[in-house]
Specification:
heterodimer, A: six-stranded mixed β-sheet, four-stranded antiparallel β-sheet, 12 strands, about 50% strand, globular, B: four-stranded antiparallel β-sheet
Chain lengths: ~120, ~110
């Protein structure tokens, strides 16, 4: 079974500082994708960044980057130069190519609540 | 990405009644999904809405409780039937264009009294 674990229920960071959110996952597959989504109080789920498992290079999107350690099944999100607007719930998710006849789905971790202090 | 709207954005309902939630996308998409997010929890997939055929439900979710329609490639509905307070959640629609990346609608916040 596919599982995603976020061990930090809450994190806080000072504005302009850097914070890292942790995520580990468990899969026996070699072909999969990993995502970080952000859910602000407005509750809209916003895609932050994605990583293909077959790519060794860590994905980067502006101030957001990941540290993808495939052997350790670890997928952490680093937010640089934190801004007040980064305050939100952050969910790590994994996607497996469905088996024949199976359904596609994302499996989500429980989330990390990030607070940004001015 | 895609522009996704959901109606209603929120509702308060009486137990025993039903509510239909609409999801509209600004362009054709291959896949549409419905998720539930219970208070303070993560997202759980309810079902995949298949165009022109019955939805595919995940374990623990049944068609009688959560009937889904998908009449075309840009629209889907989820009905929460015979509601109880345990159905109070955020219901989210997501879409993908045949890839692994899903984009989410703004969600519908449901409170059942």
């Amino acid at each position: 079974a596919q599982t995603v674990t976020q061990s930090q229920p809450e994190m806080s960071v000072q504005e302009a500082e850097t914070v890292t959110l942790s995520c580990t996952y468990d899969t026996s597959e070699s072909d999969y994708y990993l995502f970080w989504y952000k859910q602000p109080p407005s509750r809209q789920m916003i895609l932050v960044i994605r990583q293909e498992a077959y790519k060794q290079q860590n994905a980067t999107e502006n101030r957001f980057s990941v540290n993808f350690q495939k052997a350790a099944k670890s997928f952490s999100l680093k937010i640089s130069d934190s801004q007040l607007g980064d305050a939100a719930m952050y969910f790590c998710a994994s996607y497996l190519s469905p088996p024949q006849g199976g359904s596609e789905k994302l499996v989500f971790g429980k989330g990390t609540k990030l607070t940004v202090n001015p | 990405s895609a522009v996704i709207s959901q109606k209603p954005s929120r509702d308060i309902c009486q137990r025993g009644t039903s509510l239909t939630i609409q999801c509209q996308v600004d362009s054709q998409v291959t896949m549409m999904f419905w998720y539930r997010q219970q208070p303070g929890q993560s997202l759980t997939l309810i079902a995949t809405a298949n165009q022109g055929s019955e939805a595919t439900y995940e374990s623990g979710f049944v068609i009688d409780k959560f009937p889904i329609s998908r009449p075309n490639l840009t629209f889907s509905t989820l009905t929460v039937s015979n509601m109880s307070p345990e159905d109070s959640s955020i219901y989210l629609c997501s879409v993908s264009r045949g890839s692994e990346t899903q984009y989410f609608g703004p969600g519908t916040r449901l409170l059942v009294l």
